[in-house]
Amino acid sequence: MQEAIMLKEEVLTYIENLIPDPQDYVKQIEVFAKENNVPIMEKTGIEVLLLLLSMQQPKKIVEIGTAIGYSAIRMALKLPNTEIITIELDEERFHQANLNIKEMGLEERIQALHGDALLLSEEINKYGPFDALFIDATKAKYTKFFKLYEPMLSSNGIIYTDNVLFKGTVARDRSELKTRRQRTLVRKLDEFNHWLFTLDKYETTIIPVGDGIAVSKRK
Predict the structure, then answer these.
(1) Which of 56, 69, 45 is nearest to 165 (CA)?
(2) Cα–Cα dist 98/209, whole Å
(3) Predicted local distance difference test score (pLDDT) of residue 80
(4) CATH number, domain 2-218, options 3.30.470.20, 3.50.50.60, 3.40.50.970, 3.40.50.150
(5) Measured between alpha carbons, how far is 212 from 164 in angstroms, rounded to an integer?
(6) Could you say which protein family the record assigns here (predicted)?
(7) 117 in a labelled binding site
(8) Domain locations in the chain?
(9) Given this model, what pLDDT does residue 129 score?
(10) Residue 154 assigned as binding residue
């Protein structure tokens, strides 16, 4: 088992070393995130997401969970003809995201909104329909986000959900988790994953890169 774990880490490091460095300011955002404990997508995860989006070529994306704007900026740079609406609950991160978006000259294509995505749905709906929904916010609310924003998608819309494997904890015995909060969070995330695969209107796959990305496409 230990050898298998080490092999996984070695392969991950190998793949990450193959990925070219992003633009200087994007790299600065990565450093800022690490120094300030701001969660952003892992290196392999964002690359896979960008590849999937480049194949889909969505005209409009709605993102739940802006943080400091990292993923929205990466998506906008990869997709020069795409508009992005992104929502962030934390006020400090929201302001930092706007600074980063402005610094990259992307304020005309990325619109960041401050507030609870569960309360802003009517306002967001005015910007739709969207070709892609990217969920990367409070994990315990994933099912609510999916249900609330899924109707805003275009007929060929795709939903991408990050962190669905949560460091592999969804596959472990929950008794190994130290706190009740962790056990509750992992239980809800596990329930969300199982629920995705029961949906009649969608077909879903989970890609085990980064922290796990679920891709749900209408049948």
Answers:
(1) 45
(2) 28
(3) 96
(4) 3.40.50.150
(5) 5
(6) Belongs to the class I-like SAM-binding methyltransferase superfamily. Cation-dependent O-methyltransferase family.
(7) yes
(8) 2-218
(9) 96
(10) no
41 is in an annotated binding site: yes
pLDDT the model gives residue 119: 96
What are the tens digits of pLDDT across the range 180-219?
A: 777 777 888 889 999 999 999 999 999 998 889 999 999 8
Residue 10 corresponds to which tokens in the numbers above?
């070695």
71 annotated to bind ligand = yes
Report the C-alpha gap between 142 and 64 in whole angstroms. Answer: 10
State yes or no: 163 annotated in a binding site: yes
The answer for 23, left when phi > 0, alpha when psi is -120 to 50, beta otherwise, is beta
Q: Number of helices and strands (H, E) in the chain? A: 8, 7
pLDDT in tens, 153-180: 999 999 999 999 887 777 776 667 677 7
Tokens describing residue 98 = 């706007």
